[in-house]
Amino acid sequence: MFPNRTAHGRFPSVHPLVIALAALLPLTAAAQDAPAAKDPVALDTLQVTAQRRVENAKDVPVSISAIQGEKLDVLGSAGDDIRFLSARVPSLNIESSYGRAFPRFYIRGLGNTDFDLNASQPVSLVYDDVVQESPLLKGFPLFDLAGVEVLRGPQGTLFGRNTPAGVVKFDSARPSQDADGYIKVAYGSYNTWNTQGAYGGPLTDRWSARVSALYQRRDDWVTNTRQNAPAQGFEGYDEAAARVQFLYEGDDVEALFNLHKRKLNGTARLFRANIIKPGTNQLVENFDRDDVSTDGENFSDLETWGGSARLQWNLGRVTLHSITGYETAESLNHGDIDGGYGAAFLGAGNYGPGFIPFPSESADGLPHHRQWTQEFRVESNEWGRFDWQAGVFYFDEDVTIDSFNYDSLTPGNPQTGHAVQTQRNKAWAAFASGDVDVTERFKLRGGVRYTQDKKDFSASVLQAVQGGTPVSGPYIAKSDVDDVSWDLSGVYQITDNLNAYARVAKGFRAPSIQGRLAFGGVSQADSEKVISYEAGIKADLFDRRARLGFNVFRYNVDGQQLIAVGGSNNTATLLNADRTIGQGAELDFEAYLTDHVLLTLGSSYNDTEIKDRDLAVAICGGGCTITDPTTVINGGTYALVNGNPLPQAPKWIHNLTLRAGFPITDASELYVYTDWAYRSEVNFFLYESPEFRSRSSLEGGLRLGYNWDYGQYDVAVYGRNLTDQVRVVGAIDFNNLTGFLNEPRTFGVEFTAKF
Question: How far apart are CA 423 and CA 375, in angstroms?
C-alpha cells in the first residue's frame, strides 16, 4: 500500500463473489425434504458455549445474551457492519472513528476510545474460538453464523486475552454430513447490495465442507460541495468476505479447518466541521447530512485473512483440544480530520464551514501485522459429580504502524509527516476450571488463570510535521508483567425451571504502549485489574413459552487504562485512573405472547464513575464548553475528571423485537418483524462538555415478509432507522466542533432461498 493516492473509486461492476453466489442457485433443485414444523408454542432450549462446553444458558452462572437465526438476519439486512449489534443486547455499545474498519466495543461501560492501531480493548472478540486482538480484525463481517453470544463481566479464566469487561463470541455455521445452504440477495437505498450465501455437505463419509461468501456495496451518498477537492463523494463502500471450512469426523478424532478472507474498499469516517451548536448537543441550524465541504483525501482500504485448525481427540476419560490460529491484516485509512476546508489564517472566505484554525489531514496504515495463537486444553468426560478443564495458551503478535500527515492547502495534498511504531507482544497462560455438584440442586464452579505478558515497543519520527516532534528516535518502551485471574460462582436450582446464581471474578488487562509522535511522545499505561460481583436469576416460564434472565452487578477497576485523545494538545496520551466503579442491572426476556407472536425485551442500567481526584486531561481546542473543574499545569488548562462517567458508557439501553406471523397454509405465512433500540446520552471524552455529550437515540426497523415451503423461501421489504434520527455519535475535539454521524434511514427488498 502507498501513503499517497490520487484517485479512489468504486465501480458498479459485477463482483466475482456475486457470480459465485449466483452459481449456487441451481443447487436449489437439490433441496432436501421440507423440515418438520417447529412447535410454535415453546421456546427452543438456548444452548451456549460460554464455559467452553455446550450448555443450557439457564445453567451458566454468567450474564449472557445470544442473538441467533432470524433476529441476526433482520438486524443485518441493510448491509451495515458489525456496529448493528450496538444496543441490541443489554450493556453493549459499539462505535468507531474509522467507519467499518475499526469497531470499538464497550460492555457495562468498560471499553477503550483509543484510535491507535495497536490499542488493546477490555472487550475481547472471539471468532470460531480464535481471539481477534488487533482492532482491525474485530470488524469481520457477520454472515453464515450459528450465533453470537455476549458474555458480560470478566471472562479471564477460560478466554484469557484482555477480557475484564467481557467477551463477544461468534460461531460460524459448521460443515456437516447433511447437505444444505442458502442464498440471500438484498437491494436498498443508495444502491446498497447485501448478497451472501453458503453451501455445505459431505465430501466422503468422514469429510464434509462448507463454503460461505458475502458481498456488500453502497454508493457514495454524501456529496462534497468543495470543487476540485481530492474526494468528491463519501460514505460508500465495497466489501467482500469469504470462508471455507473442512470437517473430519473420525471415531475418536475430530478436525475442523477454517480459512477466511476480507477485503474492504470504501471511504474513511467522514468528519464534519462545526456541526454542533456551541453550548448545546444540538446540530447547527440548516444542517444537511447529504453535503459536506472538505479539502482532504478520504479512503479506507483493508485486507485481512487467516486460518485455524481446531482438533480434538477423545481419549476416553478426557478429551484433548488443540486450537491453532493465524491472522494477518493490512490497511490504510486516510481522512480529513478538521472536517472542513482552508484555514483562518488565509483570510475571510478561504475557510469553512465555520472556524477552521488550521488544516489537519492524516492517515494511519498497517503495512505489517501477524498474529499466532495456540491453545491446548484437556476436558473431562462424564466424571460424575465433578467436571474440569485445564490448558495452556500462547499468543504472539507482531505489528508495524505508519502514521502520515498531509498538507491540505497545497495541490496534490503532499505528505508532510511520517512516524512509525513497531510492537512485539508475546504472552502465555496456564489455566484450570472445574465444577462440582455439591448437592442435587447446588453446583459450585471455579477457575484460575496465570498469565505472563511481554511487550517490546519502538517508535521513530521519519519526517517531522511543521511545529511537531523533530526527526528522532527510536524511542524504546517495554513491559513485562504477570497476573492471576480467577472466578468463583454458584448455581442453585430453586425449582426445575428457576435457577439463582452468584459470581465473583477478577479480570486483568496487560499494560499498553503507544507513540502518537507527530505532536507528542510515547505514553504507557500500567496493568488494570477488575473485581466484579454479580447475582441473578434465570428461568423458563409458562411451560417454556417464556424465558427470563435478570441480574445485578458491581465492579471495581484498579488502575483502569484510559486515553486522553485530541484536546488542545492534538495528541493521545495513555494514563491510569486510580479507581473506577460501575454498578447496574440487566434484563433479558423472551416470550410467545400467542402461538404466532414472539416478543424479546432487553434492558440495562449502568452507572460508572471515575474515582481519581488528581486525574487531569487536556481540554478541547475548538471552542467547547468545559463543565468540569479546571487546573493549570505547565501553562496549559486541564480538566479534573474525578466523578465523571466513563466515555461511551450509556446509563440506559433498551431493546425490543416483536414478530407476528399470519399463517396462510401449513407451509406458508405472512409476517411482520419490528425491532427497536434505545441508548441514553454518552460522553465522548473523559471531560464533560455539552457539545461532546451525545443526545439519546432511538432507532427502529421494520420487516414485512412472506415465506413459503416451510420457510425455505422468503421475500421481504425492510426499513432501518425508521425514525430517521440524525445523531452525532463521536467527535474530534482539538480543532473545532467536528463530529460524525449515525447511519441514515434505508429501505430495501430481500429474497432468501434455503436448500
Answer: 22
Domain total of the chain: 1
What are the residues whose beta carbons fall under 8 Å from the beta carbon of 704, sequence distance 6 or more? Answer: 670, 671, 672, 673, 716, 717, 718
Instruction: Please count the residues of the chain.
Output: 755
How does residue 621 score in pLDDT terms, banded at 50, 70 and 90?
Answer: confident
The secondary structure of 151-197 as a DSSP string is: EES--TTTT-TT-SSEEEEEEEPPP-SS-EEEEEEEEEGGGEEEEEE
Grid cell for residue 124? 475481547
Residue 628 lies in a domain: yes
Average pLDDT over residues 70-80: 92
Is 562 a member of any domain?
A: yes
Q: Does the structure show a pLDDT above 70 at 320? A: yes
For residue 301, tell me if it sits in a domain. Answer: yes
Residue 286 maps to which CATH number? 2.40.170.20
Q: How many CA atoms lie within 13 A of 671 on its CB side?
A: 24
Lowest-pLDDT range of 168-177, 379-388, 716-725: 379-388
CA distance 152 to 581: 15
Q: 162 near 426, Cβ under 8 Å?
A: no
Please indicate, yes or no, if residue 18 is contained in any of the structural domains.
Answer: no
Query: In sequence order, which residues have a C-beta less than 8 Å from that of residue 209 and are 6 or more positions away?
Result: 175, 200, 201, 203, 244, 245, 246, 247
H helix or E strand, kind and range, residue 71 = helix 69-75
CB 165 within 8 A of CB 122: yes
Instruction: Please determine, for residue 59, whether its predicted confidence score (pLDDT) is greater than 90.
Output: no
The residue segments making up the domain with residue 194 are: 53-363+371-754
Residue 691 has pLDDT above 80, yes or no: yes
pLDDT, average across residues 662-670: 96
